[in-house]
Design goal:
This protein is of the alpha/beta class. Among the domains are: 17-83, Translation initiation factor 3 (IF-3), N-terminal domain (Ubiquitin-like (UB roll)), CATH 3.10.20; 97-183, Translation initiation factor 3 (IF-3), C-terminal domain (Translation Initiation Factor IF3, 2-Layer Sandwich), CATH 3.30.110. The chain is 44% helix and 22% strand. The chain has helices spanning 43-52, 74-91, 108-123, 142-155, 181-220, 238-250; strands at 27-31, 37-42, 56-61, 68-72, 97-103, 127-133, 160-169, 172-179. The strands form 2 sheets. Strands 2-1-4-3 form a 4-stranded mixed beta sheet. The termini are far apart. Residues 1-13 have low confidence and may be disordered.
Length: 251
């Protein structure tokens, strides 16, 4: 019996939707560029309808019966999809593994300092690797290292969960914490609320400044500025004084 290769039946998977003459269906359901239904048309008529509009016929639902095609500008459509993909990739958070190192005989001040570092890593959306470093014969007491890691996990339990339980590797004991999604959402909401409050406060300050400006200008003007000056009384002359004195004497 001769075995025949089935490779000829394997078709390459397209990297995108079929367009125009590449659509294989005999008839398709058409949606125009405005989103209106045009009914079911033979593929040739459908392609011609797109060409009459100087647009493309794009197969958007190949598994429907008949396949659904939409009339659109395929070049612009591809550009928009690529732009959205790049934007989504840019916004995607890259999770990093940040490390905090401690020793068994760490004092309370250093412990709080290191713990706060791990807390910040988790709140930023990164993983926190906590490493206990043993010196000399300290490695014979792994229970002390595990106890310290348990303390860290307990102090950070509201914002982080254990992804990797404490394990001893040589002279180091490590534990990995991952961010608590609920805590991350709460922090994002808190930051958004704080940003909104700052924006509202800034607007209030701008409005108050706009109201104070005319008042300040009016206070800076000298008293009486803007009013017409009063006319000074005419000065009396010696001749007028003499005439007035003569009149008084005759009287």
């Amino acid at each position: 019996m001769v075995l025949r290769s089935r490779r000829r039946d394997i078709r390459p998977t397209p990297t995108g939707p079929r367009v125009n003459r590449d659509i294989r269906a005999a008839e398709v359901r058409i949606i125009d560029e405005e989103g209106e239904q045009m009914g079911i048309l033979p593929i040739d008529e459908a392609v011609q309808a797109a060409e009459d509009r100087f647009l493309d016929l794009v197969e958007v639902a190949p598994n429907s019966d008949p396949p659904v095609c939409k009339i659109m500008d395929f070049g612009r459509y591809k550009y928009t999809m690529q732009k959205k993909g790049k934007e989504a990739k840019r916004r995607q958070k890259i999770v990093e593994l940040k490390e905090v190192k401690m020793r068994i005989k760490i004092d309370s001040h250093d412990y709080e300092f290191k713990k706060n570092h791990a807390e910040r890593f988790l709140l930023d959306g990164n993983k926190a690797k906590v490493t206990i470093m043993f010196r000399g014969r300290e490695v014979t007491h792994p229970d002390l290292g595990r106890k310290l890691l348990d303390r860290v996990a307990n102090d950070l339990m509201e914002i982080g969960t254990i992804e990797q339980s404490p394990i001893l590797e040589g002279r180091n004991m490590t534990m990995i914490l991952v961010p608590n999604k609920a805590a991350a959402r709460a922090r994002a909401a808190s930051e958004a609320k704080e940003k909104s409050a700052k924006s509202a406060s800034r607007k209030v300050e701008e409005q108050e400044g706009a109201l104070k400006a005319p008042l300040a200008e009016s206070l800076e003007k000298p008293a009486g500025e803007g009013a017409e000056p009063e006319e000074a009384p005419p000065e009396s002359t010696d001749e007028q004084n003499t005439e007035e004195g003569t009149a008084d004497a005759e009287a």
